[in-house]
Amino acid sequence: MDLDPSIEPLAETREFFDVAAFIESVRPAWMDKSECFFHPEVDFFSSRGDSLREAREICKVCPVEDECGEYALANPKVRGVWAGMSERDRRAILKQRRQGTV
Ligand code: SF4
Asked: Ligand 1 in contact with 73 (CB < 6 A)?
């Protein structure tokens, strides 16, 4: 059987999708300065009070706390402590913003 030379092989027509490059391209630049990156011993995703307090203490000295907080408020599906705010804290702030009380 002769192949039609005008038809490109499938491997040449599909674009390679680099997942790691895509994630890096959408990851905000401020995350490179995250203080939590230097504290792997602290659980920012725990629901225990002790861990929340530890995480919040780290957020207080983080140089990108403002950016982190706005990111978390804009992305309500993120979990854990962001900018010292728990999920409950963020829900309350979003509610206040919707009501125009902050
Ligand atoms: S504010 Fe807290 S959660 Fe956000 S990047 Fe800084 S240390 Fe991490």
From this structure: no
Bridge partners of residue 85, in order along the sequence: 82
Q: Tell me, using a 6 A CB cutoff, whether residue 42 lines ligand 1.
A: no
C-alpha angle with apex 81: 78 to 82, nearest 5 degrees?
A: 70
Confidence (pTM): 0.77
Task: Please tell me the distance from the alpha carbon of residue 84 to that of residue 35, in angstroms, as a whole number.
Answer: 12
The reply to whether ligand 1 has any atom less than 6 angstroms from the CB of 72 is no
| Ligand 1 center to 61 CA (angstroms) | 9
How far is Cα 87 from Cα 71, in angstroms, rounded to an integer? 13
- 80/100 Cα distance (integer angstroms): 25
Measured CA distances, 94 to 47, 100, 102 (Å) = 20, 10, 9
Q: Convert the pLDDT of each residue in 65-79 to its tens digit.
A: 999 999 999 998 999
